[in-house]
Amino acid sequence: MKISGIIRKFNIRSEQEPHDVIHDTVEKGIYFKGTNLWILIFAILIACVGLNVNSTAVIIGAMLISPLMGPILGMGYSLATYDFALLRKSLTNFGFAVLAGLSASTLYFLITPISEAHSELLARTSPNIYDVIIALVGGLAGIVAISSRQKGNVIPGVAIATALMPPLCTAGYGLANGAWTYFFGAFYLFTINTVFIALATLITARFLKFPIWHSAEEGLRKSANRWVSIIVTVTMVPSIYFGYTLVRQERFTQEANAYIRNDTYIEGDYLLKSEVDAAKKSIRLIYGGRLIPASVKEEVAAKTRYYKLAGASVTIQQGFSVEESDDRIVVMDRQQAEINRLRQDLEKSLHIQDSLRTLRELGQQLLGELKPLFPEVVACGVAEQVVFGDSLHTGSYPSLFVGTNDLKKTSEQRKRIEDWFKSRLAEDSVKVYIELVP
Q1: CATH architecture, range 252-321
Q2: Confidence category of residue 246, pLDDT binned at 50, 70, 90
Q3: How far is it, in rounded angstroms, from Cα 13 to Cα 18?
Q4: What pLDDT, on a 0 to 100 scale, did the predictor assign at position 324?
Q5: What are the residue boundaries of the structural domains of the chain, listed by start?
Q6: Which segments of 147-290 does DSSP mark as H helices, in order?
Q7: Which of 22, 199, 220, 415 has the most CB within a 10 Å radius?
Q8: Residue 136 in 3-state DSSP?
Q9: Are 71 and 166 in contact (CB under 8 A)?
């Protein structure tokens, strides 16, 4: 493919709407009345609920239906074409939208019973230079889509990427709860999105050479351009600092985690928990095990010099300790011996219980086997019988107790019952006792 063919692929003027259509589209999008006003109210409430219950899906829904992009694109477009009447309308409607968003979100967070700041809300309180990049590129995509006949689903995607509604509602949360850090952080993020979406619109409109519909004095044009430069600079400078701080904290966290992973082992102790606070440059280590001497703590803390952790403070705490004094060892040995004795007694008791349970079950099973062979047998039981003699010798035999309703007949069959019992238990010596059961 030739270079000219590649260049033609990037040409967006061939798909561009007529300039009067673009102008009408932008102008219609700036007004908040009727449908747009109700959609704005619904979007505010949805965003507030999503932030309140920490639901990403609900917040995305609010961003999709929010009409806030309209007046922002209008501001950028009007500045690019020096249409100051349209600029005033855009600013007026945008101010109304911001006031409505702040009022509604503040009211919601004043009456909601859930006041905890979840992760989705906190994510809107720390803007940085990356948010500038997102807003700028999102604004470029938005104005390019509006000026093209192939709009597709770009505008909803831009609404999600630039996320205008959530920071405005987060600012309302800050007002409702007196959390001024949240308010200023979220409102600054909202300002970044507003300014750089408008800037992207201005740049694109001038690049595509949108016509200037109304004449304006040269001095007024220069003044407008100067104010745009000032506003953009003032908005961007803090974000650069915050972005630098974010990168520095991320690097500190990475180095701290590497240090914790590789150089915090203490013999005889186990690292129960580690905490890294990149903002304060602090590392907290909590151990369990032996009491850690101060010299060992200093040695572990000193190993931060092998990492990029200049100025980091390391705090080593004892979660629990086992002091190895002689008295304590003796006490522990005695306690362990007593535990072992009690465990053995318990095992014996459990063994006896198991044996008794087994014998009961065996007696019931044998009765079921005896009845077909000896119908006169109506009961039986099994036991382990220990026989003592005059000498030290003792004997142990399995014993079968047979209850019958015909003592004579059953006694005559004693030999057969004994042989059956021996075969059944695979024993050479057994005892059989026969009793008359009335």
Answers
A1: 2-Layer Sandwich (3.30)
A2: confident
A3: 10
A4: 47
A5: 11-216, 252-321, 329-436
A6: 154-162, 165-177, 180-207, 218-263
A7: 199
A8: helix
A9: no
Q: How high does pLDDT run on average in the chain? A: 81
| Radius of gyration, alpha carbons of the chain | 43
| pTM for this predicted structure | 0.64
Q: Give the pLDDT of residue 5.
A: 66
Strands 313-321 and 377-388: unpaired
The topology under which CATH files domain 329-436 is GMP Synthetase; Chain A, domain 3 (3.30.300)
How far, CA to CA in Å, does 112 sit from each of 53, 115, 195? 11, 7, 31
Structure confidence by residue, pLDDT tens digits, 369-399:
878 888 888 888 887 776 666 555 566 778 8
For residue 371, give both structure tokens: 């009845």
Please name the CATH architecture into which domain 11-216 falls: Up-down Bundle (1.20)
Q: To which residue do tokens 């701290």 refer?
A: 256
**What's the chain's length in residues?**
438
Ranges of beta strands (E only) in 263-356 are 269-277, 282-289, 313-321
C-alpha dihedral over 348, 350, 356, 362, to 10 degrees? -120
Closest CA to 183 of 195, 175, 193, 191: 175
pLDDT single digits (tens) 403-415: 888 888 888 888 8
Can you tell me the distance from the alpha carbon of 56 to that of 160, in angstroms, rounded to the nearest whole number? 11
What DSSP character marks residue 377?
Answer: E
Which tokens hold the place of 421?
């019992």
> Given this chain, do its domains 11-216 and 252-321 carry the same CATH topology?
no
In whole angstroms, give the CA distance from residue 160 to residue 163: 5
What contacts 349, CB < 8 A, 6 or more positions away? Answer: none
* Nearest Cα residue to 264 out of 204, 335, 314, 218: 314
* Among 156, 164, 168, 190, CA closest to 68: 164
Cα 294 off chain centre by: 37
